[in-house]
Design a protein that fits this description.
The chain has 143 residues and is an alpha/beta fold. The protein folds into two domains: 64 residues, Rossmann fold (3-Layer(aba) Sandwich), CATH 3.40.50.720; 67 residues, no CATH class. 36% of the residues lie in helices and 13% in strands. It has six helices and six strands; from the N terminus they run E-H-E-E-E-H-H-H-E-E-H-H. Strands 1-2-4-3 form a four-stranded mixed β-sheet, with no helix packed on it. The N and C termini lie far apart (42 Å).
Length: 143
């Protein structure tokens, strides 16, 4: 079973209970891709590449945090390909203009000019949330 759940800004939902895991055949394998967000199997806990597996109720668990690290060179190229254009935009335009121009960069902004601009981060840390548009001096209509 391969489990993967991504809920932005929140822990993964537990999709499989311990009872469900226990009902699997001995020697079955579960891979918890959501382990970086707490895991989606009730029996999961983070492991490492050095000691990647553990067994619960006869079921082998693979719950390595940062799974792409197993193929470091390949994952580095993939990360570079996905982020280089953003880095170039930041360098060419400056951070404020690059964020104004790119909704993906704006969505990734957490803190700017001493203000917490990501609502979930502000809530988790007990700080006031200030929309990125306000920090960037944009009107609500142009956002």
């Amino acid at each position: 079973m391969i489990g993967s759940v991504l809920i932005p800004d929140a822990a993964a939902l537990k999709l499989m209970t311990r009872q469900m895991i226990a009902s699997m055949s001995a020697g079955a394998v579960v891979v918890d891709v959501a382990i970086d967000q707490g895991g989606c199997f009730e029996t999961s806990h983070a492991t490492t590449h050095a000691d990647p597996t553990f067994v619960v109720d006869g079921v082998v668990h693979y719950c390595v945090a940062n799974m792409p690290g197993a193929v470091a060179r390949t994952s580095t190229f993939a990360l570079n390909n996905a982020t280089l254009a953003h880095a170039v935009a930041l360098a060419d335009k400056g951070w404020k203009q690059a964020i104004r121009d790119n909704p993906h960069l704006k969505a990734g902004l957490n803190v700017a000019l001493g203000q917490v601009t990501h609502e979930a981060v502000a809530q988790a840390l007990g700080h006031a949330y200030v929309p990125a548009e306000r920090v960037l001096g944009e009107s609500a209509q142009s956002a």
